[in-house]
Structure formats: structure tokens, C-alpha cells
Amino acid sequence: xxxxxxxxxxxxxxxxxxxxxxxxxxxxxxxxxxxxxxxxxxxxxxxxxxxxxxxxxxxxxxxxxxxxxxxxxxxxxxxxxxxxxxxxxxxxxxxxxxxxxxxxxxxxxxxxxxxxxxxxxxxxxxxxxxxxxxxxxxxxxxxxxxxxxxxxxxxxxxxxxxxxxxxxxxxxxxxxxxxxxxxxxxxxxxxxxxxxxxxxxxxxxxxxxxxxxxxxxxxxxxxxxxxxxxxxxxxxxxxxxxxxxxxxxxxxxxxxxxxxxxxxxxxxxxxxxxxxxxxxxxxxxxxxxxxxxxxxxxxxxxxxxxxxxxxxxxxxxxxxxxxxxxxxxxxxxxxxxxxxxxxxxxxxxxxxxxxxxxxxxxxxxxxxxxxxxxxxxxxxxxxxxxxxxxxxxxxxxxxxxxxxxxxxxxxxxxxxxxxxxxxxxxxxxxxxxxxxxxxxxxxxxxxxxxxxxxxxxxxxxxxxxxxxxxxxxxxxxxxxxxxxxxxxxxxxxxxxxxxxxxxxxxxxxxxxxxxxxxxxxxxxxxxxxxxxxxxxxxxxxxxxxxxxxxxxxxxxxxxxxxxxxxxxxxxxxxxxxxxxxxxxxxxxxxxxxxxxxxxxxxxxxxxxxxxxxxxxxxxxxxxxxxxxxxxxxxxxxxxxxxxxxxxxxxxxxxxxxxxxxx
Length: 662
Prior knowledge:
Blueprint: H1 2-15, E1 59-62, E2 68-70, H2 77-82, E3 93-95, E4 103-105, E5 136-139, E6 143-150, E7 156-167, E8 170-181, E9 190-202, E10 208-223, H3 230-235, E11 254-273, E12 284-303, E13 318-337, E14 341-355, E15 360-361, E16 366-367, E17 370-386, E18 389-400, E19 407-417, E20 420-431, H4 435-438, E21 439-440, E22 449-450, E23 458-469, E24 473-483, E25 486-490, E26 505-509, E27 514-527, E28 530-542, E29 553-565, E30 570-581, E31 588-590, E32 595-597, E33 609-618, E34 621-628, E35 640-642, E36 645-646, E37 651-661
Antiparallel strand pairs: 1-2, 1-5, 3-4, 6-7, 6-37, 7-8, 8-9, 9-10, 10-11, 11-12, 12-13, 13-14, 14-17, 15-16, 17-18, 18-19, 19-20, 20-23, 21-22, 23-24, 24-27, 25-26, 27-28, 28-29, 29-30, 30-33, 31-32, 33-34, 34-37, 35-36
């Protein structure tokens, strides 16, 4: 990984000379100035767009669904919300004290895009790039994006990308995201490295297109088990423990790791199609396509010595490892007509092999060493735009196999006018729980089970309504009905050793229906250079047993000021953000499984989190300075992200985002 960092430093160093060709901002965040040229391109050999000037819109970003956006070099309050480890808005998440550790949930969304079980260890997957998280690039000239941010003690966060092409039709990108952070608490070091390479190609006659990527990802975390004496050392506010490295923790010898490698290919050939019209879309066409994905992944938990906190062990040291290998193939035919829309028919084949090293015989059952098989499904997709209406639909049905399920998505939107838009969607899906619910083996005797014949498929049915209005704000209301909800929880059948605290966590499945209502509203008020940005979320869970806990109310309010400085050479925003959520019985974290589990004994939340920030943009450089949770020193030591795991104390962090063009 260090060699990769060195490579990027060299590449970005060469790109510094390209600053004089940099792109001015667009005006979507209030910054003045028009979209001027980058440079004059030489005439194209195919005779199209000779002498065309390059603007920011010529640096395109294409996602998995083939939706295209362009590089945004501005600053805005939304950029402030996304400037974090995940590089996305974490409004519904509660981070742990150290960067990259994990996040507790403040909101829930059970909609799925794939009907196949995943490896598990979901608490360690927040930074893991799935197939749908990889973007592809189409750039006019070489472009680089570099994000840097300080962490907590002895480390930094770097997210670097270089996109370039060898011709207008063949584009590549190389990206690396790596970080290391020692953390403020003992034995909480976290580090990871995520490397990706992408390519996308289109033939000269536009009949064949291809996109592919490779990804290698490795995350390693020290696990201290949380505070062992939180009442006396943390909550008391004793000044002797203001240095958080002096607080006692449960473990000093445990680590877990998530490692994955993936190779992905999606290509399509146009069998026939009419000539291009003025909108550069084919009036009628038929294309055949193929999508391929091969991925290997494992989750590993190690502990130098068995600890009674998790019960008895089969060995004096602990070394657990769950592995998953999957191969996915999809063949599809896509019919496109200007009047009828775009209809796609597809067939999927999914092969999985989830395995451990050996078969395990416990006093009560024989636990297999693997789950392996093939799943076949068929489906269809439909897309059509009629005036201001946009219609999308997708359906998938399981043909053979025991683990995959069914999927139905329907979406409709209507543009009332340029300032108001309505959306309505329906989701229905069924899928088996993740593999670690069905089968798990550990050197801890209490963490071994097999439920392949006991658990049913999770059924999710619901609908969502959205109103997007520049005047009224954005309103989202969502209703979900959930059957066979599967979760981890402490096993009430286990007898705790007197005088000792032990954590026995097992998978369970809820037999009754859970109904979830979620309403989110966002609105910004502006006056001259001042603005108040508000996001409020309300959640109500109706359930027979308390197996799904979320806060009833979550709010984030930012008061900030924006203006230019230094004769408009600098644009800045400064303000204060308040985030608050009502008390609830937040899930606890289990490091052996890398999962959160249900607990109904301790309520967390009900404390404010105040951040002060100053952000600025100079040419294509965005500068971020934030004083995080600055009220921690005077609002009481009751701020937890999960039971025994505190949220972070007051800290000042600095970072940059650079873009270079050549």
C-alpha cells in the first residue's frame, strides 16, 4: 500500500503544473462566475465538434445504473455533510470514537437491490466498496481528485483518484483510499486500504461498449471491547481520565479483519438500431449484454488468549475465519424504442461457496463446514419517460435454489414544474438472512450454530412518497412491513457466571410482523449571506416484541454564513451544526461477529453534538476545518455511540480536496 501511495504522490505532483488550466466553479452553491473553458482541444479526427472547448461537464462520472453526473468543484453545505470518512451524508449514522471503526444506526432501510445473502460482519462493511459503489469516468483530459483529512493520533486519511484516457472512447481510472488512526482510547487502532481500477470503452460505431473494474480491499481493526469501568472513569468526569488513553478497556489482544478481491465486467453489443436522431438516441434498437462478477472475501477475528467475557473456548487462543467465494453471471436482452421505452429481460446465475476449515461436532448438533450451491433467477426491467412523467420498474423471480428470493420495484415521478417534483415508489422483496445467521463457527463454544433449516426468508413490503420543492422543502414518507426479521441478541437461555459479565450472542428470527413509519423533512432558509439548513426525521416502530430499536426523532440544524473574500478569489462558509437524537435502547456491538446486537437494558442518546466549521474554496482546492463536538467538555460525559463505546471528544480536524486537470 505504501508503494501505491508513493505512485499517487508522483502522479499528483506532476498534475500540479496543470493548475493554470483549472476549471472555474459552477454557480450551484451561490458562487459567482460562469462555466468557462479549460482548454482548446485539437480537432477530432472523426470530424465531430472540431475545436470544441472543454468545460466541467466534459468530466463525467457514470455510476452502476449508468446515470451520469459531472465533477463538482464547488463548496456547499451538502459538501460539508459529505466531507467524512464515508464521503456521503451520514445523517442516519452514529460514528464510533475512532475514524473508520463502525457506525451505529439512527435510521433503518430494509430495501434490497440484490436477493442473495451476504457474508455478514455488517458492522465492518461501511467502507467496503460493493459493485454498485464503483463509478466510471469519461474525461476530456487527465483529471485527478485528492481528498486528505487528519485522523485521531498518528495517522491520516487519503482518498486519491486519477482518471485519464488513451482516446475519446477508452477511459481508465485508478483509485486508492487508505487511512490509519491510532485513536484516543487504548487498543482502538484502525486502518484500511481500498484499491480500485476501472475501464470503460465504446466502439467507434457505438455498437459495442464495455466497462470493467478490479478492487482489492483490506481493513484491520483493534478491538478493545469497550470501557470496563465507564461509571467511575468516564461518566464521573474525573480530570485524571481526561486523557482517554488512561481509561481501562476490556481487551488488549483482539483484532478483526475484512479482506476482499473482486473482478467485474459488463459489456453490451447492439444487434440492430436505426440511425441516430438529433437527440443522439436510437429510435429502435436491440442489444445483448453480459454482466460478470467474481469475488472472494473473508472475515477474521483473532485473540491472543481466550477471554471468559465470551465464554469457554476450544483453544487457548482464538482464530475465527469465515470465507465466501461468489461467481455471478447475468445475460440480458435490451429492447429500446422511442415510443415504447426501454425493456430489458435477464437471466441470472449465482454460485456461492461459504466455508470454514472443518466440520464441528458440538454436544447438541453437527455443524457443517460450508454452504455451497447455485441460484438461478429471471427478471425484467422497464424505463420510460413521458413528458414530465418518469416510470421505472424491475422484477426478479427465483427459479431454482434455496437462498435467493424475489424482488419487485416500481417507481414513478412527475415534474410538476421546474421547482416541484413528486415521486412514488413500491418495494417488495424476499431473501434469506446473511450467511453468518445461517452458519457460523468459532473457537468460542457459544458462537457456533447452524440454522439453514430453521430460518425463513425475510419479507419486506412497503411504499415511499417524496415531494421535492424549492419553496416547501423536501419531504419523504416511507412505510415498511417486515416479516421474519432476523437479528442478533444476547441468549436469555444462557446462565451467567456469578460475578462475571459475559456476552453470549446468537441469531434469532422474529415471528410477528414489524411495521415501520419513517418521515424525513429537509428545508433551508436563506437571508442575505446567512442560511439555516434543517433536516428532521421521525420514526415509529410498531412491533409485538421490542426487537428493532431506533430513536424516535433525529434532527440536524446548521446555521452558517457564506461570502467571498480577497476580491472574490476565495469563497467561504462558516457556521455551527447541531445534531441530536432522542434516547433509545441502542444496539450493542460484538467484536467476535463484527455485528451489532439487540439490547434492552440501557438507553443512550438525548445529548447534543455541536460542530463548528470553516470551509473555503480557492480555485479547485476546497479547505475544511472543523471543531467536532466542541460542547463535550461542558455538556456531561454521557455521550455514547453504543453501550460501553463513547462517541468522540472535542477535536479539531483539518482537510483538503484538490482537483487537477491537464
